[in-house]
Amino acid sequence: MDAKVDDPFAAEAAAAEPPVVSSIVGRLWLPRNLSGSVAKEWLDRRRKSIRPWASFVDQRRFSKPRNFGELCQRAVRNLDTYHSNYTFIFLGLILYCIISSPMLLIALAVFAGAFYIIHLKSLENKLVIFGRELTQGHQLGLAGGVSFPVFWLAGAGAAVFWVLGATLAVIGSHAAFRELESSDMEELLMEPV
């Protein structure tokens, strides 16, 4: 199977550069695009662009919009202004959902264990199913297939829709009812009609 150079699962790209082992995350297999440093950089960028939580939840800044047009303007501007805050709210709701459901924790452990076992087997010798070698992406899919019944029993589908609904309700209501910053208001007044 020919692999692209930009493919994070390409065996040739992984063999071209020696792996750097600095922590337990470095010892585990991760695709190049999903390395711990990339996730840490993304999280740091979000943390730096976060608005102060005190102004984010200031109750004096909430009011009912006069009309639907103002509601849409508020939503668009607030989503742009507070996107990092909203990201952390979303991540917090995911964390709450996982922690509050022991079966979901077990399902995630089964998935991680299945993937790790499959990965260890592939290190010993190449995994071949139906005459085809399994790439690491296929191995991840196989681990998902093995753990799917546990996710089904744990109610992962309901958890996903609960997180999406709660996120939409919390973020949507904040974005719609929070008044715009004064700099945004000046910008809106200065726009040509």
Could you characterize what this model shows?
With 193 residues, the chain is mainly α. Helix content is 68%, strand content 2%. It contains ten helices and two strands, in the order H-H-H-H-H-H-H-E-E-H-H-H. It has a two-stranded antiparallel sheet with strand order 1-2. A hairpin with a 2-residue loop joins strand 1 and strand 2. Helix 5 packs across helix 9, helix 6 packs antiparallel against helix 9 and helix 7 runs antiparallel to helix 8. The longest helix is centred in the middle third of the chain and has 23 residues. The N terminus is likely disordered.
Brief descriptors of the model:
193 residues; mainly alpha; two-stranded antiparallel sheet; 10 helices; 2% strand
Distance between the first and last residues' Cα: 58 Å
Q: Which spans have pLDDT < 50 for at least 5 consecutive residues?
A: 1-5, 7-32
Q: What's the overall average pLDDT, rounded?
A: 76
Give, in order, the helices and strands: HHHHHHHEEHHH
> Care to count the β-strands?
2
Secondary structure category = mainly alpha
Helix content: 55-70%
Rg over C-alpha atoms, rounded to the nearest angstrom: 23 Å
Strand residues, percent: under 5%
- The spatial strand order of the largest sheet comes to 1-2
For the biggest sheet, the summary is:
2 strands, antiparallel
Count of helix runs: 10
Shape: elongated
